[in-house]
Amino acid sequence: MIVHPIYAGFGLSFLLELPHGLYLVDAGSPGWDGRVLAAMRRLGRTDLKLIWITHAHYDHYGSAAALRALTGAKIACHPADAASLEKGLSPLGTTRGRGKIYPFVQPLANRIRTLRPTPPDFTLEDGQTLERFGLDAAVLHTPGHTPGHTCLLLSDGTAFAADLLGGSPPHLQNLLATDWDQLPASLAYLQAARPARAFTGHTARPFPGPVLQSIQA
Ligand SMILES: [Zn+2]
Questions:
Q1: Distance from the CA of 72 to the CA of which of 37, 48, 104, 155 falls in 20 to 30 A?
Q2: From ligand 1's centre to the CA of 19, what distance in Å?
Q3: Burial (Cβ within 10 Å: 0-12, 13-18, ≥19) of residue 133
Q4: pTM for the full model?
């Protein structure tokens, strides 16, 4: 499997290249679907099968509806964030530090490029896998940043930690949360899965498993 990180507005989209299909982890901000399509063209592929949305934020599912319309890929997420996707919402919860600018920035961005209602085709709970779509990956429910935030753990040991973590070197989410008290347990849950490497939602380079284990709540 080859992971192609794609900058798509405020967020990153990860295109997973497998012999039998392409998969996307997150879909960037609204209006950035062209970046993903360009990456697919470079690979000479049209078989995008699935878009896994780690959580219901503007910069993570913004281009998902457009990509579904253009490629026929299915969209999926955890049920606790499904209603936000359906309504085109991006719940920020409460903010800390630099995160305090988001309640001002997000409405402005949304006025320029509006987040579309994006009803998922299906939802998966903690521990369920994407095997029936040809992707050997398990869903880890890691709430706190949003109620339905998930990490995706692939069988090769790669984890997509999304916005459970931030920064480089990575640290536990410290800008936005709908429930700050859930974050330490979510971090411990990801650490217990012992991924070999992990990507955060906003950094194109993965970091090794031992770095993940060293992150303190
Ligand atoms: Zn987020």
A1: 155
A2: 30
A3: middle
A4: 0.97
